[in-house]
């Protein structure tokens, strides 16, 4: 099973035109917002398990991904949550909600729109709560379903589909 990439320009145009049509989930109860804002949009930003560059990566995320800022910067690292994942990102690559003179919506999204492409045509692809086949299923989706790719780590893609955020196996 894998998720096929679409053209970047088409994806960005689609995001600009339909914006929230795929339903960006709201941030958890009252958490401050932040957005991945890498100066090189072709790069993805690591979500680290601990506030250090040599800590395990929990995934790499595209510009425009909204996150909950869970606290104050610790030595240049900000504790954040992206859905069920919690970790740390370098503050220099984030736009925080309280950045003077800037709006979170001013960060151009680099998140591509992909389609579910399961080689087993008789099976649908599960959206999982966490990056594990043993995790709760949030729904099943047939080939052709459009998803927004926020980031990826290992075999798992962190996606938004039908207003739900979760993980799909993306081998």
Topology of helices and strands:
Elements: E1 2-4, H1 8-18, E2 32-36, E3 45-48, E4 57-61, E5 66-69, E6 77-82, E7 85-90, E8 94-96, E9 113-117, E10 125-128, E11 137-141, E12 146-153, E13 156-161, E14 164-169
Features:
171 residues, mainly beta, SH3 type barrels, 5-stranded antiparallel sheet, 1 helix, globular, disordered N terminus
How does this structure look, described?
The chain is mostly beta strands and 171 residues long. The protein folds into 2 domains: 8-106, SH3 Domains (SH3 type barrels); 111-169, SH3 type barrels. The chain contains 1 helix and 14 strands; from the N terminus they run βαβββββββββββββ. The protein has one helix spanning 8-18; strands at residues 2-4, 32-36, 45-48, 57-61, 66-69, 77-82, 85-90, 94-96, 113-117, 125-128, 137-141, 146-153, 156-161, 164-169. The strands form 3 sheets. Strands 1, 3, 4, 9, 12, 13 and 14 form a 7-stranded antiparallel beta sheet that branches. A 5-stranded antiparallel beta sheet has the order 7-6-5-2-8, with no helix packed on it. A two-stranded antiparallel ribbon has the order 10-11. It starts with a strand and ends with a strand. The model is unreliable at 1-30 (pLDDT under 50).
């Amino acid at each position: 099973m894998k998720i096929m990439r679409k053209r970047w320009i088409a994806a960005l145009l689609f995001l600009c035109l339909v914006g929230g049509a795929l339903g960006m989930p709201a941030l958890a109860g009252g958490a401050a917002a932040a957005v991945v804002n890498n100066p090189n949009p072709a790069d993805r930003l690591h979500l680290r398990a601990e506030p250090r560059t040599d800590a395990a990566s929990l995934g790499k995320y595209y510009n425009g991904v909204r996150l909950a800022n869970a606290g104050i910067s610790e030595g240049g690292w900000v504790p954040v949550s992206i859905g069920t994942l919690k970790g740390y990102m370098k503050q220099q690559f984030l736009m925080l909600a309280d950045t003077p003179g800037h709006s979170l919506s001013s960060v151009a999204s680099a998140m591509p729109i992909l389609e579910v492409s399961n080689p087993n045509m008789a099976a649908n692809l599960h959206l999982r709560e966490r990056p594990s086949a043993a995790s709760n299923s949030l729904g099943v989706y047939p080939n052709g379903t459009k998803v927004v790719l926020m980031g990826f780590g290992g075999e798992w893609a962190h996606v938004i589909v039908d207003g739900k955020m979760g993980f799909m196996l993306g081998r």
